[in-house]
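As promised in the previous annual report, we have extended the structural survey to additional targets. Below is the entry for Restriction endonuclease.
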Amino acid sequence: MEFRKRTLERLGDLICGNLGADVPRGDTEPPYFPYRSSKYLTEFFGELDMDWEHDGSTRHRWVAGVLEQLLAESHEGPAHPPESFCRVIDHLMDPASALNEGRDRSNALRQLNDVLSREGFEAFYAEDKHCYLRHIGTNSVSRPAQNPHRPLSVAETQRRSALAAFLDTCSEDALIEEVLLPLFRQLGFHRITAAGHRDKALEYGKDIWMRYTLPTQHFLYFGIQVKRGKLDATGRSRTGNANIAEIHNQALMMLAHEIFDSETNRRVLVDHAFIVAGGEITKAARNWLGNALDAAKRSQIMFMDRDDILNQYVVSSLPLPAGASEDPL
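The corresponding structure token record, generated without further manual editing, is:
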């Protein structure tokens, strides 16, 4: 993806906090972006886990060069800038960095959009107070916050702790209905159907089944086996834990049994099985499962444990389940 040189230098002005970056000469409007010297430019990118270090050259042109390299990274298409570029914009528009205005940063947002509109994009704040980019032509949104492996903000860390406390006490049905179903919907899955635990009829090892549409409009079907506690590989599991061998057998049942998709009006087999644990999947359990899967099944059975659920849920900006307090203490 390429932006005009002038656009990149104007963005560099905003990141540097150069007074009058997008303000006509002689205007008395105050600056809305904090001034960043050489040291603080290096810190700005360092806070994003990027190794850029200012070399002493003209600051806004140096930043423009960095942004140009970020835009050259792989991305999903012309309507979606690379994730690293989106993270820079989100960090630039952090409400905590507001200057000469409120935390909504309406003036800073206006100046930023004056620059981005030349390239067909606009920035906006979502309900989670993160700043996202929207492609004006297609109205598609690029969300940098969905990478579960990135560093979490202070607010996200607090939400993660609150969700972890909820997982400690919730039932298996609550884990499915209040955490997993909203999470998988947010991640782009469709036709999400929960079998439920009150009526076990025709479950065949599936707690949830769902469908994912590929860009080619082909469908992949997923089945999910959910356990609230820890998955282990001991000969005799403790109360609240489950043995990985039993879960493996249920996953095999899931793969062998057809489901009926009423939208396509046909019966289909599950393509992939997810084993999801609200607790830890121990190292021994992971090793046993890896050894038990032959080459044909290894790509069909995947697993998510507690940390995966917490990170994916928090970075997807979903509201906490009812009963989960953002101040668990």
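The longest strand covers residues 219-227. Residues 197-202 have pLDDT under 50 and may be disordered. These points will be discussed at the next consortium meeting with the crystallography subgroup.
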